[in-house]
Amino acid sequence: MTTATTPSQPPAGLVPLFAGVLRSEARKLGTVRSTSWILLAAVAFNVVTAALLGVLLPGHLSAHQKATIDSVRVSLGGLHLSQIAVGLLGVLAVTSEYSSGMIRATLAAVPQRHLVLTAAAATGIAACLAAYLVFQAFLPAGDALRTTLADPGVFRAVTGAGLYLTVLALLGFGLGTIFRSSAGAVAVLFGVLFVPTLLTALLPSSWQDTIGPYLPMNAGDTIYTIRPQAHMLRPWAGFGVFCLYSAAALATGFVLIRRRDA
């Protein structure tokens, strides 16, 4: 007696699988009201701040200041606020599922758990590009602060700002996976970002120049800077260091999410 067998289906390709996970994660996040408000806040912080700076700043700067200021970094001034929203979103993307118990369904539906972490990452490139363009639009015609995306380093800085937000979201996601608690992960996230920089400011200048460039926020900031300070890392090197912090959190999250019960 023979038993009929059904030919096994070939495994889905990585790209279609990732696209499906991304759609499902976006759908789940969209059902949480706070997600929409956080995303809206992140975009609003960038764009509104850029518009205000474009209107108010030129009249308060001298010709020398305009010639030496990093106008691209100025146009991205809202990033200091939007990074809080994006970091919070990265944490909530996973801790909200732990609090509701939805994480069990997520891990059952997607055995490749690392794809869940990857699919939950948010990108801020569009918001940063919009902020830059709005800033340029509100500047007076012929103002010395005007630049174009074709100018040296400008496109890298604008897109790099979006990459910075994306990696920050991944850092928050990794910490959320580690701690499973929104309060704990948020406290650690912003502690890692802000506290070392504040404490280093109390050290002698020689120590600041040695340690400062490798702190998370200082390293990440260089990617959207046209004129980095002499003692800081170069843009891509600094961004690479920032990515290492995120990678460490995600790697720890990958290990823990496989070894402990959801």
Oligomer: single chain
H and E string: HHHHHHHHHHHHH
Overall structural class, as computed from helix and strand content, comes to mainly alpha
**What sort of overall outline do the alpha carbons produce when their principal axes are compared?**
globular
Fraction of residues in H or I helices? over 70%
Largest beta-sheet characterization: none
Please indicate the percent range of residues in DSSP E strands (runs of 2 or more): under 5%
The residue-averaged pLDDT reads 79
Distance between the termini: 43 Å
Can you walk through the features of this model?
The structure is a single chain. This protein has helices at 14-30, 33-56, 63-68, 71-75, 79-100, 102-109, 113-119, 125-138, 154-179, 182-200, 205-211, 216-221, 235-259. The longest helix is centred in the middle third of the chain and has 26 residues, at 154-179. It has 13 helices and no strands. With 262 residues, it is mainly α.
Task: Explain briefly what this protein structure is.
By secondary structure, the chain is mostly helical.
Write the layout of secondary structure elements.
Blueprint: H1 14-30, H2 33-56, H3 63-68, H4 71-75, H5 79-100, H6 102-109, H7 113-119, H8 125-138, H9 154-179, H10 182-200, H11 205-211, H12 216-221, H13 235-259
Helix pairs in contact: 2-5, 2-8, 5-6, 5-9, 5-10, 8-9, 9-10, 9-13
